[in-house]
Amino acid sequence: MIQCLKKLFLKEVEEEVDSMKKFLIVGLGNIGAEYDNTRHNIGFKILDFFADEESVTFETNKLGATATYKFKGRTFVFLKPSTYMNLSGKAVKYWMMKEKIPLGNILVITDDLNLPFGTIRVKGKGSDGGHNGLKDIQGQLGTTNYPRFRFGVGAEFSKGRQVDYVLGKWNEEESSKMKERLEKAKEVIKSFGTAGLNNTMNSFNNT
Which residues are annotated as a binding site for tRNA? Predict the structure, then answer.
């Protein structure tokens, strides 16, 4: 009896340790060809770039497309929700529970109108800032205390044209600078899993 309890305890400890080495990286966006290469889909774009660079393949699964990447003893589960932006939280909650990933090991990648193009801002918590994807995640998880990676898309639009802007394609100047920014975003994700949130914020914010 004692041996059985000991084995059970050790198994639980091992599972807890393993869960601390697993990360859920969520790229927010909308599914459908009409949304490809739009500012609002930067989360999808960053994960697609990372996957292409590392020869990782996404598979269609429940509530989203997922891929797994292993690096320095860590397991990164990439998620592109198929729920559309405004219902992103449902997919995040499902995969967080399925993979037994703690809240602090989730990183949500999203566009941010309040930051100049390509600016990186990683935070451990915060408001939704009017972003519907973050708002739904907050509602589903019941907290704002989850890490997020905001990628600046600028605010070069006239009054009343915000929706057209975020659902619009990248302009020529932005496209010319995109590869370097995507490479930097890839470094941010790796750092989050290996160096931790605080070190990642110190190393990459506003770069």
Answer: 35, 84, 86, 132
Mean pLDDT of 124-143: 93
Catalytic pick among 39, 40, 80, 121 = 40
pLDDT mean across residues, the chain? 92
Burial (Cβ within 10 Å: 0-12, 13-18, ≥19) of residue 21: middle
Q: Can you say whether the dihedral through the CA atoms of 59, 64, 69, 74 is positive or negative?
A: negative
Q: Tell me the backbone φ, ψ of residue 23, rounded to 5 degrees.
A: -130, 140
Question: pTM of the full predicted structure?
Answer: 0.89
Q: So what's the pLDDT on residue 19?
A: 64
Q: For residue 169, count CB atoms less than 10 angstroms from its CB and return exposed for 0-12, middle for 13-18, buried for 19 or more.
A: exposed
Q: Is 131 a catalytic residue?
A: no
Residues sharing a CB contact under 8 Å with residue 26, sequence separation 6 or more, in sequence order: 43, 79, 80, 81, 88, 91, 92, 106, 107, 108, 109
DSSP characters over 66-120 = EEEEEETTEEEEEEEESS-GGGHHHHHHHHHHHTT--GGGEEEEEEETTS-TT-E
Cβ atoms of 201 and 188 within 8 Å: the answer is no
